[in-house]
């Protein structure tokens, strides 16, 4: 080990990494700081040489450079201890990495706590270790790489963690195993219920299992070194989500971690250890969210069998949530698989298993049982829809036909079934592939599904690629890159080619063959390979389908004894068609009817398809019933095919009841009205026989100036080529180009000015450049990588000198087409603006890109009353607490503590006193009853607002505006929703639907309100959120919105107002003790977080609003921001800043209302503290721009009466404040 350490010390060099932007020099302060540090560690004397060798970044004033990341390593034996002052002069340092230096820990961390330094610090094998107390410590990431030499490292307190979100203790992986004499850190838990720690990542190497009560950890990586103590503290791991345990010893066994029997928070676990034999089977079903469990048993050293019952029983009862089980080489038998409905992957290789499972779960898609001792035959059907790997076993008999048919075509099967010497893998194949195909043209994805499709990706054209085997042998997914111009696609199954349509089409029959008795064959296209999808009848008799493909279908019908014309009804799936045939005759070049024969049949024998109508019907499509229903009078007769009367020469009209009168004289410039016998003259003519003429033209067509001449027959001007308008007075000016009308027919020339008028998607003097814009972005993470930018960028040939800039970094373009830019960017963090330049034009999307973070913070760290889901930044509150930050009290009612009348609810609630047992805090009930007043929710059907009235406090919510913003963020159009709703009530769904059409447009607004009866989870943009029972869900759909300019975006505005229903001051005396001014808190509106929050409080009622900084734009999630538009003391307007959605936008804010824990019952001078109760309000807003804009809102309210009135307003989103009476 000593030689290895010396070798590493010699070869590693000091390196300083600095983010670079250009050739500017460091500021004087940064230069002095580097010079002093270089002198102390005897390295680089010239600080600017560091900057030129690596990279720098501009300071805020764009005049100097600053250092962001600094890494130093002691390779020349420096003994001087480093202090805080050696680094504090770097004003913009974000990450500090120190290796092999002696560090003055107490002063170093003490000064950091007081004055701050880098956000992330790595201390690699530094000496004189003493874990600091990190109260108010600004650094959020701290990593210690432990030295192998003795030091003062030992116990450290949990209360010292400060603001840390990531704490890592590791040893150098390049060095040998940890010696038994090495001192490893231990954790002393000195926390209590009022002080809880939340960590995104905790990696810890120790000899003692830590006590993690009051810890909430997203990812825990625990390495235990011998001799191990404290295994009982596994009981404290109940708030861990991802757990990895490595017991780094072959000389000690430990008990199975009790976390799995106590916690429902763990999602994923990996265990590498040797566990002691259990006394009974271990039930881990309390881990109801566990999805992945991996166990690697250490098979060296001492002997211990974890099986139950011995010798090979599976020792665990698994939760139904489990999706992956990885237990290779453990010696266990299989668990019961048919009770695990979500299990998709199972690896039990090398376990001495002797038989296949008799039953499997519905989701199992991969079963790895290689290198076992299984004998017998493989059931013919049980495993056909999964990847079954059973190599190196003792199977005999025939391989199931589903695998056998593909054995010679897909090499993976020869691997899965190899080393089974008595297994017969070849034989006749009677199975037939039955494929189906569908496309998603928006996402450019496809689905291939059916039966007998194989276990590897089939052979495909070059312009498509597979991405997923969803169900082996049955369902595949993939993507296609180029626009498919053909109407069909071909795949290869079992060595044969199969043709499938790209889009659904009705069957098209070209030729029909009949043997003259009962056999029929139909040739054409857009048929199917699935015989069960085909139904054929011959003049009402069924014809049994015997063969089906894309081009041919054969069927066998009853025996017909004559050669009469048979009507063939032909149905494939949802499509139907009809032809006719003659027994024994060939029907070639069949031309089917162009319309459906509603009350008749299509005759295709010897002619172009023609409808033959049933008696009593007429018309080209046999849709006219009772033709000539009016009696044809005066000698007229009925044309039954056309359904009209043919009249004699003296009569006319639909029933031949109108006389036919000839005009007395010829109508010279007109026509005779045969019903009156008088002339109808053409324009410009008059008189009884239309022979009197004269019409004037406006301004005589500017004849004197050469404008044009007058056509006096119609009174209209005919202008010369250089003039235009109705009086030929305006010069006609040609444009210098055709205004690129080949690319967009919306481009046109203004012939009055000679200047091109471009459509919204084009710009330039000749409309020659795309007016490009961004609709959505798929970002990369903070390490950098691929970025996908969707929008409109013009077709091929319109990308001159393209460039993408994100923040200050160039995103190097990999590919660009009409709707997508693929580029690569370096590492970064936070929210950035995006610039796309091409053809000399630039588009800038402000704050529309956000580097994807691994974890997100929760509001107020859940106030110490809940756990934080770091994956989305959402609190899960402890029992008795509620709100987005768990800072309001929530009542849990029971039959013993709640009494309900028509007006009030009396509840015995938890006080602020609590007792602690085994690390859990339980509120102690008080005996004082709390009266919760009735809440009445109403929906105003005239103005379209939702009102919540409680104890004379009134909140009102409504959608007020949609604002269209230009490139500079200025309003160019405001749409106020009007009060013209048409109402429809759907009682069984508790839903109210309102519709209106906006004046002067074809834009329609559909607005619905639904009462939510039961709590349910819902997913938005990949996030799993919850909608509570007792609420109102509001949906607004706006269709056919058109932008004024392609660079414009929309802002949805939600207005919240709060008021009172008290008639005067005396009327509100019973709530006087809760009087409180209106206050608005926007401190949690952080554009760098996934979830934003706003709170509005008045009279001890608090409205919580949660906004997701993400929108689904054109079916793709992308980043947005939320802003406060105005706050005037009685009204708050919030704006949701959407991207330029081409087809659709979908956003999803939500709200909740609680009563403050400071609320009091004012009656009879009682002043007891009143716990809050929860009124959740959720609003989902899908916007469909051009096609539709949908706004969905959900207002959750307490279980009381609900009278409905609903809202009318246009696009903007005006949410008014909601009030609850308490």
From TrEMBL:
Q: Which Pfam families does the record cross-reference, listed alphabetically?
A: ComC_SSD (PF22933), EGF_TEN (PF25024), EGF_Teneurin (PF23106), TIG (PF01833)
Q: Which UniProt keywords apply?
A: Disulfide bond, EGF-like domain, Membrane, Signal, Transmembrane, Transmembrane helix
* Boundaries of every EGF-like domain copy: 589-623, 624-657, 659-691, 854-887
User: Could you say which residues form the signal peptide?
Assistant: 1-23
Show the InterPro entries listed in the entry.
Answer: ComC_SSD, EGF, EGF-like_comC, Ig-like_fold, Ig_E-set, IPT_dom, Leu-rich_rpt, LRR_dom_sf
Q: Where is the composition biased (Low complexity)?
A: 897-918
Q: Where are the transmembrane segments?
A: 1173-1197
Query: Which sequence ranges form a coiled-coil region, renumbered to this chain?
Result: none
Q: Where is this region: Disordered?
A: 897-928
Q: Which Cys residues form disulphide pairs?
A: 613-622, 628-638, 647-656, 681-690, 858-868, 877-886
Which protein is depicted? Answer: EGF-like domain-containing protein
Report the source organism. Answer: Dictyostelium discoideum
Q: What is the lineage of its organism?
A: Eukaryota, Amoebozoa, Evosea, Eumycetozoa, Dictyostelia
């Amino acid at each position: 080990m000593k030689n290895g350490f010396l070798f590493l010390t010699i070869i590693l060099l000091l390196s300083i990494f600095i983010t670079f932007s250009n050739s500017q020099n460091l500021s004087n302060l940064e230069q002095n700081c580097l010079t002093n540090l270089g002198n102390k560690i005897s390295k680089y004397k010239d600080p600017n040489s560091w900057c030129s060798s690596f990279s720098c970044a501009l300071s805020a004033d764009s005049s100097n450079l600053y250092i962001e990341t600094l890494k130093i390593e002691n390779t020349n034996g420096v003994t001087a201890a480093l202090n805080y002052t050696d680094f504090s002069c770097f004003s913009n340092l974000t990450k500090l990495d120190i290796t092999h230096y002696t560090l003055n820990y107490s002063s170093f961390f003490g000064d950091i706590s007081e004055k701050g330094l880098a956000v992330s610090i790595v201390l690699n094998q530094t000496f004189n270790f003493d874990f600091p107390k990190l109260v108010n410590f600004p650094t959020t990431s701290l990593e210690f790489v432990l030295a192998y030499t003795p030091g003062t490292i030992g116990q450290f307190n949990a209360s010292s963690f400060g603001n840390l979100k990531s704490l890592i203790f590791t040893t150098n992986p390049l060095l040998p195993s940890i010696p038994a004499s090495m001192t490893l850190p231990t954790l002393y838990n000195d926390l209590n219920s009022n002080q809880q720690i939340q960590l995104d990542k905790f990696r810890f190497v120790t000899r003692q299992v830590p006590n993690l009560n009051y810890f909430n950890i997203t990812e825990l990586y625990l390495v235990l070194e011998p001799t191990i103590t404290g295994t009982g503290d596994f009981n404290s791991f109940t708030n861990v989500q991802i757990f990895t345990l490595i017991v780094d010893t072959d000389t000690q066994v430990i008990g199975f971690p009790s976390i799995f029997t106590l916690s429902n928070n763990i999602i994923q676990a990996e265990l590498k250890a040797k566990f002691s034999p259990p006394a009974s089977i271990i039930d881990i079903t309390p881990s109801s969210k566990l999805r992945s469990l991996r166990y690697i048993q250490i098979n060296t050293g001492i002997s211990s069998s974890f099986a139950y019952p011995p010798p090979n029983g599976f020792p665990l009862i698994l939760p139904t949530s489990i999706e992956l089980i990885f237990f290779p080489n453990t010696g266990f038998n299989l668990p019961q698989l048919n009770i695990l409905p979500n299990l998709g992957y199972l690896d039990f290789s090398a376990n001495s298993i002797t038989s296949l499972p008799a039953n499997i779960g519905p989701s199992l898609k991969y079963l790895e049982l290689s290198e076992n001792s299984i004998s017998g035959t493989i059931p013919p059907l049980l495993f056909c829809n999964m990847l079954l790997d059973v190599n190196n076993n003792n199977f005999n008999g025939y391989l199931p036909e589903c695998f056998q048919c593909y054995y010679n075509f897909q090499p993976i099967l020869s691997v899965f079934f190899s080393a089974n010497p008595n297994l017969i893998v070849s034989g006749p194949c009677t199975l037939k592939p039955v494929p189906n195909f569908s496309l998603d043209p928006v996402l450019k994805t496809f689905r291939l599904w059916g039966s007998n499709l194989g276990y590897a990706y089939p052979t495909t054209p070059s312009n498509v690629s597979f991405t997923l085997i969803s169900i082996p042998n049955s369902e595949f997914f993939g993507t296609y890159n180029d626009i498919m111009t053909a109407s069909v696609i071909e795949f290869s199954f079992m060595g044969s080619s199969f043709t499938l349509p790209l889009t659904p089409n009705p069957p098209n029959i070209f030729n029909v063959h009949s043997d003259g008795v009962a056999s029929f064959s139909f040739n054409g296209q857009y048929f199917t390979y699935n015989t069960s999808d085909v139904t054929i009848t011959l003049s009402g008799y069924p014809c049994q389908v015997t063969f089906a493909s894309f081009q041919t279908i054969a069927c066998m019908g009853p025996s017909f004894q004559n050669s009469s014309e048979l009507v063939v009804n032909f149905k494939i799936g949802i499509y139907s068609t009809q032809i006719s045939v003659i027994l024994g005759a060939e029907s070639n070049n069949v031309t089917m009817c162009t319309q459906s024969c509603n009350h008749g049949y299509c005759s295709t024998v010897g002619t172009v398809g023609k409808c033959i109508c049933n008696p009593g019907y007429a018309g080209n499509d046999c849709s006219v019933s009772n033709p000539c229903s009016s009696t044809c009078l005066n000698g007229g007769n009925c044309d039954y095919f056309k359904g009209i009367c043919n009249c004699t020469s003296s009569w006319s009209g639909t029933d031949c009841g109108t006389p036919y009168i000839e005009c007395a004289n010829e109508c010279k410039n007109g026509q005779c009205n045969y019903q009156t016998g008088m002339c109808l003259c053409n324009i410009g003519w008059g008189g009884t026989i239309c022979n009197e003429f004269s019409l004037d033209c406006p301004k005589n067509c500017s004849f004197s100036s050469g404008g044009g001449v007058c056509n006096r027959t119609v009174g209209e001007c005919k202008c010369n080529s250089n003039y235009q308008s109705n009086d030929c007075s305006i010069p006609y000016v040609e444009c210098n180009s055709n205004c690129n009308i080949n690319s967009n027919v919306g481009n046109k020339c203004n012939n009055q000015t000679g200047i091109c008028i471009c459509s919204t998607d084009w710009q330039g003097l000749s409309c020659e450049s795309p007016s490009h814009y961004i609709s959505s972005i798929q970002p990369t993470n903070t390490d950098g990588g691929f970025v996908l930018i969707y929008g409109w960028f013009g077709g091929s040939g319109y990308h001159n000198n393209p460039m993408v800039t994100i923040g200050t970094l160039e995103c190097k373009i990999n590919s660009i087409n009409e709707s997508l830019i693929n580029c690569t960017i370096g590492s970064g963090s936070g929210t950035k603006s995006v610039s796309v330049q091409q053809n000399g034009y630039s588009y800038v999307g402000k704050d529309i890109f956000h580097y994807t973070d691994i974890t997100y913070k929760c509001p107020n760290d859940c106030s110490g009353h809940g756990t934080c889901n770091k994956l989305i930044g959402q609190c899960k509150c402890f029992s008795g607490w509620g709100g987005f930050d768990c800072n309001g009290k929530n009542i849990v009612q029971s039959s013993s503590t709640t009494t309900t009348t028509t007006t009030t609810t009396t509840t015995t609630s938890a006080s602020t006193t609590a007792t602690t047992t085994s690390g859990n805090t339980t509120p102690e009930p008080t005996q004082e009853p709390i009266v919760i007043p009735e809440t009445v929710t109403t929906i105003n059907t005239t103005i379209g607002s939702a009102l919540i009235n409680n104890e004379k406090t009134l909140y009102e919510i409504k959608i007020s505006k949609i604002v269209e913003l230009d490139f500079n963020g200025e309003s160019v159009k405001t749409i106020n929703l009007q009060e013209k709703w048409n109402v429809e009530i759907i009682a069984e769904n508790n839903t109210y639907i309102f519709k209106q059409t906006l004046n002067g447009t074809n834009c329609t607004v559909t607005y619905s309100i639904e009462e939510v009866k039961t709590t349910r989870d819902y997913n938005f943009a990949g996030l799993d959120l919850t909608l509570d029972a007792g609420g109102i869900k509001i949906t607004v759909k706006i269709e056919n919105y058109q932008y004024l300019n392609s660079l414009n975006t929309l802002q949805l505005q939600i207005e919240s107002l709060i008021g009172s229903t008290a008639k005067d001051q005396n009327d509100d005396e019973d709530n006087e003790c809760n009087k409180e001014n209106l206050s608005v808190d926007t401190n949690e509106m952080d554009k760098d977080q996934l979830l934003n929050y706003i709170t509005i409080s008045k009279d001890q009622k608090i409205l919580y609003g949660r906004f997701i900084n993400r929108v689904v734009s054109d079916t793709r999630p992308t980043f947005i921001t939320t802003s406060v538009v105005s706050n005037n003391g009685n009204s708050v307007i919030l704006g949701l800043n959407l991207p330029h959605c081409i087809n659709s936008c979908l956003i999803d804010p939500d709200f909740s209302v609680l009563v403050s824990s400071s609320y009091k019952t004012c009656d009879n001078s009682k002043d007891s503290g009143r716990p809050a109760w929860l009124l959740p309000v959720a609003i989902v807003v899908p916007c469909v721009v051009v096609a539709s804009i949908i706004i969905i809102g959900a207002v959750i309210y307490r279980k009381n009466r609900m009278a409905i009135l609903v809202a009318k307003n246009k696009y903007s989103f005006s949410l008014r404040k909601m009030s609850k009476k308490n």
